[in-house]
Amino acid sequence: xHSYSWYLQLRNLVWATSKHDVYMAxxxxxxxxxxxxQRGTEVLHVAGQVVPKQKTHGARTxxxxxxxxxxxxxxLMVAGGFRGELIFKV
Length: 90
Prior knowledge:
By secondary structure, this protein is mainly β. The chain has one helix at residues 2-10; strands at residues 14-16, 21-26, 29-34, 39-45, 49-50, 62-63, 67-73, 76-81, 86-89. A hairpin with a 4-residue loop joins strand 3 and strand 4. The N and C termini lie far apart (37 Å).
């Protein structure tokens, strides 16, 4: 059933960190919606080149990441791409 598999994918693209804050991934960005402020803000944009701030083993420059999943906890956001990319943002 296609609608069921789409639901399983959608649950990884919307994340509520409180009753007032919701994060939504779409294509190449993650947006934060605040119900208190009644506005959205882009918090991650990966349509262009993504250059690591700190070089670690295996870190490389990415380009045009299409976000397929994300998770948020405290001040950490983790986003994954369709081609196996993994992006951490504090």
